[in-house]
Write a structure and sequence with these properties.
The complex is a heterodimer of chains A (533) and B (227). Chain A has 533 residues and is α+β, with helices and mostly antiparallel strands. Chain A is 28% helix and 34% strand. Chain B is an alpha/beta fold and 227 residues long. Chain B has one domain: 3-Layer(aba) Sandwich (Rossmann fold), CATH 3.40.50.300. Chain B is built from 8 helices and 10 strands. The two termini of chain B are 33 Å apart. The chains are: A alpha+beta (533), B alpha/beta (227).
Amino acid sequence: MEENRKLVRPPFDEEGNVIWTDEEKPTKKKALRWWVWLIPVGLICVIGLGVLLYKSAHRKTPQELCRSALKDAFDDGLGYREPMMKALHMQDLADIFSEGPTDIGVSLSLRDTNLTLGDFGAKDADRKLSDYAGFGFGVNIGLDGENVGVDLRGSISALSLSLLKAYYDGDTIYFTSPKLLKEVLTAKVSDIPGAWENAPLWEMLPAGQRDSVKGTAQSGFALLQKGYTLLQNVRKALAATYPADESVVDRIVASIRYEQMKDAKGNERTEMVVIGSEKVPCYVFRIDVDEDEFYKIADVVANAAGGAGAAQTLHGAWKLRPEGDGNGVNVYAYVTKGGELARLTAEVTGYALDKPATIQADLQCTGSEDPQDRMYLTVTADIDGKKYTFDAKKTVTASRTRVSSKIELSLQLPDMPQYGANASINYNVSGAILDVEANTVYEGDTVGTMRVTAECNYKNGWEMKFDSLSFEDRYNGKSASFSGRIAFAPTQYAPEKPEGEQYNLLTLTPDQANAMIQEGIDQLEWYYNKFLR
Amino acid sequence: MITVSGISKQYGRKVVLREASFTAKQGECVAIAGANGSGKSTLLKILAGTLKAGGGSFTAFGHDMLKETSERERLIGYVPQENPLIAELTARDNLRLWYANSRYDMNQELERGTLAMLGIPEFINVRVDAMSGGMKKRLSIGCAVANDPPVLILDEPDAALDLICKEAIRDYLAEHKRRGGIVIITTHDEEALSIVDKLMVMQNGVLREVDRTLRGDGLLAELKKGQ
């Protein structure tokens, strides 16, 4: 401070103004005016707009893209994998084929030795969500090296076979709905110049490719039949569970996902999700079983469906599966209107990872007028063979006068079973008990416990009473406790039921359901006749 | 030159100030001593424009400070007892708010100007809520003088400060006087009176001038007069 004393401001004059000399006058740097920033920002906007306009003006239509890609492909003597993959943008293809009879997009591409017919139902599922919900029935077959996956989802009462997808030997063969497949394979490809003009696509395929398609389709059809049988079994079991209310069976919207995967260590993993409708609750199973056991479990699930009621509706599905060198992201999302059910599965392969990584998040909520709500959140990550798991479960029980919830959380880290944590929270919104318990685990043993119990009473307002607050650390042998009382100001009474609307999108009559099943069977027949006979 | 004439204030029936008057020339420091609750801070708040006067006038450099608010902002800097700082911000950020429209460059002031003289660079990056009382007071003064007002009004600037802080503030005020500025302070600290040119005593809202050399028992006796 001392050395600064000489560095002072100039004197004041008789008006109270500072008397500046030219040398002393401060040279404060002026801040940039706000409008100065408009220059670069405006420039960027103008350039960006120009680029957009240019691209818009020169953008090929989907039909043009397809036409030129096909031309390149055939001009190249069927060495067309690269040009096809480059030229056929998924969305463009979806645009091309989205006018199929069931509004499910189809893509078409030709790879080295296999036919690729892509499914782009996502776009249509998104666009026509209400129509799609509950009406789709899909089979997803993967025969990709060690991995075998089957994905059945959609409505048991709507065997419209929106999707049949298969992998073979690392290359992808996509089949769409047999109905659409028929449209595509028998279509006249009049846009393709040369010898192929006006020939049905199926006839364009070399014999080897036809066999490949046929072989894959045969496997797919076998699994499809299994899936159909499984769903029928579920229907039968539900019918047995609800003998007095057949409408339950007819109105069921079931999504069954059965996935049998082999991870990097060769372990099989089977995942099954059954989502009921109306009075059928939501069940999630994630177990390691073989295929036979899967059917047993399906029966168990069906029988267990007589539990607490909860409406559930599959509202939409969205998929993304980039093709190419194996790197990519595979995303499945199941969304219900009102957020009752949300499911997201993301599989990441390749890139910087030594082995494929899978990150999967499932969030499932059930809710109905029947006073039981449940929410499950499961996040699993399989990265380089290590599994990370986070589970959260929330259960809400509601009556006309009380809403109570229970939340359970757990976390597991890979290769460290001795570490982990879990917590359980119970609370009654309308004033009963708040109970929180958290445990810490060390070397497989619970070493620390914290527990809070509080009582809330509604007497002309809220009153919260802490009965106990205790902490016990077994590892260090320490413990502490606390008790007290806290009163809260009057507030509104608790809601009678949890927030959130209820949706029952699928209200098919038995006749409608039967018609849809018949449609699916017809499609199966065509499929069988075309490829398997 | 400032002239305070007949400033009064009352809350309901309670009279807080009774026609307080004094003058100060450029280069002078006026100190107001008095017991707690005697009306010192009320008078300073009125002079600073944060409290409305019940009556009287206050002119500075020929301008009516009770009416000409823009001139008041130019001519008067006020450091209240409660530091006018934003606790969640650092000293630098607080200063930025005050120096946004100042003719002085804050960084230059920190390097070799008033802010350096007040020792603010030592804690320039410290949040206000982590500062000592002395730091806060020096920062408050630094903020108040951002526009370099010729009249400085400080309400107990040396309360609960250590000797070094007091000296820094006292040195700054002495320098302000030397430049032709006017300083009005309230204080309980006799050391602060060393720069005083005019000593006033406030008792029950009544302001009167006493001998500026009074210290110790003599000053105490003046403060107790009439009680």
